[in-house]
Specification:
The protein has two domains: 4-98 and 292-310, NAD(P)-binding Rossmann-like Domain (Rossmann fold, 3-Layer(aba) Sandwich), CATH 3.40.50.720; 102-283, 3-Layer(aba) Sandwich (Rossmann fold). Helix content is 35%, strand content 14%. It has helices at 13-22, 37-44, 60-63, 84-89, 102-117, 120-128, 157-168, 182-188, 195-201, 221-226, 244-252, 292-310; strands at 4-7, 24-27, 49-52, 71-74, 93-95, 149-153, 172-176, 191-192, 204-207, 232-235, 258-261, 281-283. The strands form two sheets. The chain has a seven-stranded parallel beta sheet, sandwiched between helices. Strand 3, helix 3 and strand 4 form a beta-alpha-beta unit. Helix 5 crosses helix 7. The longest helix has 19 residues, at 292-310. The radius of gyration is 21 Å and the shape is globular. The structure holds glyoxylic acid (2 copies).
């Protein structure tokens, strides 16, 4: 009998076909609706492997019924949706998809930075709404990117890829990280600072750190007060790292100048979310890694990780060694 696996969303067909060679595969077929927790609860009891997305909450309660489960393969680099400790206690291997999305996510982060600084979505709407009557000296003016100071919080793979892009714009690059990255400092001319200094000195504060209990609300009122009133906050990591109420206040009060957000505390955000009412906020629906090629690669890596574990081999990307 083939091992049973459950895939929590429609993924590219070639990858499903590949998995079907080795496994008895069942799939939550909807493209735009996440699998209900109830369905997941039933499935988890009978499967050997789970292929899931960041939209699934894999908590302790769910894992109680996971009596045969050997592997949870998350099609994402972040894995804060999974209770790693609970999985480890049950001997379940958890894997993610780092590496393949690094450059794509750094591209999106820089695109969001530029869009926010130069008010691109606002300017585009302005034109479509028929407001463009003449060229005028201070109309839709934003902040410069070249020669400015960028502060990168979290210098992992994606943070470093962002630094390479910043270097191309001749930016002064500060970073804060749990440990210093001397090689990157030397190669890219980065400067390590305390979080406080980074917040005080940066024109762009970019959050590139994983979401953990330690980074929960790492950026809140106190941090916004340290930032320049011309500063721009960019978050393409996880929403819970920023206190959204405090961010709203900081933007509304002019404590900071603008924000570009690809992630939110509760996703999807509802249309009445206060941040969506502010003109100086650029919002995206969590599309950091969303290039066709990269999403294909992420699905391939997630499938490979699942195959390796269930074949008794060592997968490449174990997060709970
Ligand atoms: C996306 O947010 C990911 O973690 O891959
Ligand atoms: C993710 O790949 C990171 O380390 O930034």
């Amino acid at each position: 009998m083939k091992p049973k696996i459950f895939i929590t969303r429609k993924i590219p067909i070639p990858i499903i076909n590949q998995l079907e060679k080795s496994f008895d595969v069942s799939i939550w077929e909807h493209e735009d609706i996440p699998v209900p927790q109830k369905v997941l609860e039933e499935k988890i009891a009978e499967i050997d492997g789970l292929f899931c997305l960041l939209t699934e909450t894999i908590n302790k309660e769910l894992l109680i019924n996971a009596t045969k489960l050997k592997v949870i393969s998350n099609m994402a680099v972040g894995y804060n949706n999974i209770d790693i400790e609970a999985a480890s206690k049950k001997g379940i291997i958890v894997t993610n998809t780092p590496g393949v999305l690094t450059e794509t996510t750094a591209d999106l982060t820089f695109a969001l930075l530029m869009a926010t600084a130069r008010r691109i979505p606002e300017a585009s709407s302005y034109m479509r709404e028929g407001k463009w009557e003449t060229w005028s000296p201070m109309q839709l003016t934003g902040q410069d990117i070249f020669n400015s100071t960028i502060g990168i919080i979290g210098l992992g793979r994606i943070g470093e890829a962002l630094a390479r892009r910043a270097k191309g714009f001749n930016m002064n690059i500060l970073y804060h990280n749990r440990n210093r990255k001397l090689q990157a400092e030397k190669e890219l001319g980065l400067q390590y600072t305390t979080l406080e200094d980074l917040l005080k000195k940066s024109d762009f504060v970019c959050i590139m750190t994983p979401y953990t209990p330690e980074t929960h609300y790492m950026i809140q009122k106190e941090q916004f007060l340290l930032m320049k009133d011309t500063a721009i906050l960019i978050n393409t990591a996880r929403g819970g790292i920023v206190n959204e109420n405090d961010l709203y206040q900081a933007l509304a009060d002019g404590e900071i100048w603008a924000a570009g957000l690809d992630v939110f505390e509760m996703e999807p955000v509802s249309l009445d979310h206060p941040l969506l009412t502010l003109p100086n906020v650029v919002t995206l629906p969590h599309i950091g890694s969303a290039s066709i090629a990269t999403r294909m690669k992420m699905a391939e890596v997630a499938a490979d990780n699942l195959l390796l574990v269930l074949n008794g081999d060592i997968p490449k990307n174990v997060v709970n060694k």
